[in-house]
Amino acid sequence: MFDIAVIGGGVNGCGIARDAAGRGYSVLLAEKGDLASGTSSASTKLVHGGLRYLEHYEFRLVREALSERELLLQAAPHIIWPLRFVLPHHRGLRPAVLIRLGLWLYDHLGGRKILPGSRGLDLTRDEAGEPLKAEFTRGFEYSDCWVDDARLVVLNARDAADRGAEIRVGTELVAAVRHADHWELTLEDKTTGERKSATAKVLVNATGPWVSDVLQRVKRTNSGSSVRLVKGSHIVVPKLFAHDRAYIFQNADRRIIFAIPYEQDFTLIGTTDIDYEGDPANVTIDAEETAYLCEAASTYFKAPVRPSDVVWTYSGVRPLYNEGGVSAQEVTRDYVLELDGSPSEAKLLNIFGGKITTYRHLAEDAMKRLAPYLPPKGRPWTAGATLPGGDFPVDGFEALVSELRGQLPALPERHLQRLVRAYGTRSRKLLDGIRRVEDLGVSFGGGLYEHEVRYLISEEWARTADDILWRRSKLGLRLNAEERRRLAEWLVNHGRKQASTAA
Fold this sequence. Notes:
By secondary structure, the protein is α+β, with helices and mostly antiparallel strands. The chain has helices at residues 11-22, 59-75, 96-108, 149-162, 211-216, 287-298, 359-370, 397-407, 413-423, 427-430, 450-460, 465-471, 481-499, and strands at 2-7, 27-31, 46-47, 80-88, 119-122, 138-147, 166-169, 171-178, 183-189, 195-205, 227-238, 246-250, 256-262, 266-270, 274-275, 312-321, 335-340, 348-353, 443-445, 448-449. Strands 3, 4, 5, 6, 11, 12, 13, 14, 15 and 16 form a ten-stranded mixed β-sheet that branches. Strands 1, 2, 7, 8, 9, 10, 17 and 18 form an eight-stranded mixed β-sheet that branches. Helix 1 crosses helix 7 (359-370).
């Protein structure tokens, strides 16, 4: 009998599992695919307040997100770091005075302490103006943070497991039968087809776009709520500018897009907002979205961005609470927690919507809603607690790289930087006993070695090449087709036995 069963291994599910396990509850988390294999790995990779939400008067959401921004930065400075955003002023769109007012609010709503505030820019003199068209002479600059979204999910799962949670990937909820004081669950291993049962006092449905699908498998549920599925797509192109700041561009349709430095050699451009129907597992970018993003970026950059420049794309489905009657871009990004069950029934908590930035707060809120139906345990604890590998100062990245350089001087600097960005202080565990490059084992290309692959299998639930190349890392941008094939083949021949006893 678990105290809590969480269905869904995205950022909300893993965040709730971590919070609950840290309070002393017994926790089961089941994810039918890989951790972060849905919406949580398809974001714009930002920890931010959401500047554009001010126009929709969502001041509470922006304030909450801004207050979370620096908490998360301090919790995981290896996968989250400060990023300055340049907003060129477009004379035909929002007036400069409105932008200044919005940035002033953005600076002051969330209790900012670490990140620098906003300022005006002369784009004829600042290097940020160099890649832009000559007509953009004035701009503004403000702070938010970058995040490796998929790694954020995995690190929450890792912390949950370290605190006693049972994490089962490749495990689908087939059925959930409600009783007076517990749930009886049937779970299926998607690899073997084997079915197992489990019981839990409360059930959490954190399946994102699949929240309504899961409700159909729950016996005796009273939920009438639904999600509105909104597709967001991104494109990645070769590096468009040399500096390390990002751009936020206003469009004539009153939407905005970002152009963000990505994986050192690329630029990430996104996102779109389109209502979506169909299986969220099959979501992909379409030609119209690619053209939209290229055209929007080309409005600002001197060098046009063409569909032929695109080296990679990804799409995700945002599971927003269905308010009805508004456009996709106006639907709230706030979360809704729905507690289902009569006084004589075991409780089901359904999670609708939410943002990466507010996942920790959502988890606290979820535990508050569930507390009356669980035995008394620990108090809220995640504010101020670091995630695995994040126990170093916000400005301590270079010191960690230097430490690893002393241990493995033969490894390229970029490789060492990637390891610290991915694993933080856990790079020490990853490289424990490694003294020569040869100790790292088989090289798969792109700086990926057998030793790291084995670590990802044993510590981070990786099972497939996609798990490793696109979620635990973005090395899929570096490996060619033959190298990816070799990795997949190695995993079949060597990784399966290790995965059966991993994590």
